[in-house]
Structure formats: C-alpha cells, structure tokens
What does this fold into?
Amino acid sequence: MEIFEGMSRREHEQLVFWSEPKLGYRGIVAIHDTTLGPALGGTRFWNYATDEEAIIDALRLSRGMTYKAAITGLNLGGGKSVIIGNNRTHDREMIFRAHGRAVESLKGRYITAEDVGTSVEDMEFVRMETDHVVGLMGRSGDPSPVTAFGVYRGIKACAKERYGDDDLSSRHVAVQGLGHVGHHLCRYLAEEGARLTVTDIRQDRIDEVAEELKAERVAPEEIYAVDADIFAPCALGAVVNDDTLPVMGFDIIAGAANNQLAQGKHGGELHQKNVLYAPDYVINAGGLVNVYGELQGWDSERSKRKAGDIYNTLLRIFKLSGDENVPTNQAADKVAESRISEARHLQKSWI
It folds into this structure.
C-alpha cells in the first residue's frame, strides 16, 4: 500500500513503526488528530495476516477514536496501536515493555490502554516503561462494564427513537460476541427483562451466558437471520456487509463492536431500509469515557454517569438524521467534525 496516501486520505498526523525482533515485538502506533488533546486509544494485539492489514487497522481505528472523543465531548484526540503476533502467548512481559518504549518515544502525544487481545495486566508491563498508559489496576481498570453500560443506554435511546418508548422488557435482542463487554451488556438487558438470543465463536461463552441468563443460543453464522427487534454486534467489525444485509430483518442495529459497517455505503442502505443504526463510535464510547475519567481523577460513578449520557447524544444524532434526511453515521460525523473544526480556533495540535 501507499502509506502516505493512506494517511492523507484519512488526514492522519503520524504513523510510528517500532521493532524489537529479539523480543518478538512488532508494533505500530497511529495518531490521527490531536486538535482536542493528546491522542488516546487502546493497544490491539492481533495475528494480522500481513503488515498492510495491520497498518490499515491502526489507521482506521485511530480515526474512529478521534470522532469518538469529539462527539462525546472529551478533550482528547484519536490514536490506536497494534501489536502483530499471537495474543495467546504467555511470554508477554518483554513484548509489552517494548511497546511501552514505543509509546514513551512519543512523549505524551499518544496515551494507550487495553483493547482486543490485551489486558489490564499487560498495561502494567507497559507502565514499566512509560507513564502514558491508562486503565491500570487500582485505577479505572477494566473498561468493559462502563462500555457495556453505555451500549445498554444507547440501545434504550434507539428503542425510544424507533418505538416511542425505551422500555426493553418486551424486546428481543440478538447479541453477537460474548466477551467482557458483550457479557456485561447481556446482564443489563436481562435485568430489564429483554429476551436474548446469543452467539460467539467460542461455545463455552455461549453456554455460560445462556445458562446464566436463560438466553437462546444460535451458531455464529445464524445470528444475522434471527427474528429479533434489535441486533447488538459486540465482536469484530464489518458485520454489516453485502452478504449479511439481505438476511437481516432487525429494526435496530446497536452494539459495542468498532467499525460495524463494512463500507460507508452500508449506512445509506440501512437508512433506505428504515433500519435505525447507532453509529458504533458513539454508542461504544463508554470505554473511552472510563479511561478519560482516570486521567481527570473522576470516581467510577461519575464515569458511569457520563457514559449514560450516550443516550442523549444518540437522540441528538437521530434528530439531525431525520431533519436532514441523511444516514445516522453521516449525521454523527457532522457533529464530531463540527466540534473539531471549532476547536482548531483554540489550539493547533498537541505537542
């Protein structure tokens, strides 16, 4: 791929490569935009098929973090880092200490946290080499519960918009992905009395949630055709695509996964089909709120209240979408871009 062309297309500021072959470390840090503050975004540990795939993921995810911070009203920019390799390895200390050195080289322009394939324990290794890391033990810790609460509140906002009432006790929700966030989300939904159908690529997770919450089970490939009111994708991205859209019969798509639309055109197709879509970087912003709260010294309840405000943010986006007859993902982008543009009059970038 043409790296500078890829950066220019998404208006990225910086792309950093760091390698320590003897330690098995290959890392990439992408900084998208620092207009609002230092770039914050988690570290993803994944066995990418190619270096190009890893670069594209870092660029795509860091841009999403910029928009997530902007639309949530946080004074942060967007960044993301990826580590290429097997995230199930037990030899983690030196890999993450090497990653900490990569983060430290940016002198505060980028702050990291846990993400897919990494943990709070991994961030403790990162902290051995840099102070520019959040989501640590004894501080904000695992962001999953706050993320899940924000998604739950976002689903209620979607129900309010679509049905005129945010009560979920009579709604059927299909949840894809039962990791930390998906499992917590299912608990919130079950507590309100929602009917659940669940799936995951790991059978043990399906069985655990089904038995705990009396949820129905389906195979991973069957979730898209479930006859449910709401689809909550909480695994990896690109699940709304040319193959899945024709079989979906949901009224609402609202979940925790990043980059749920395989292509921008799919937001328009959902709009045309009258499927209400909660833009992913809005509804899943609770994790970012959680680590921002750590930086600001908030207690857990304040972070949770801030994540709960995703409800009102989505209602504003839905109103703009209706007023201008544009897909909800485009309406969300407009709101985020407006805040970034206004902030550029106050400061140029985080140095």
In short: The radius of gyration is 19 Å. The domain at 3-67+76-127 is CATH 3.40.50.10860 (Rossmann fold).
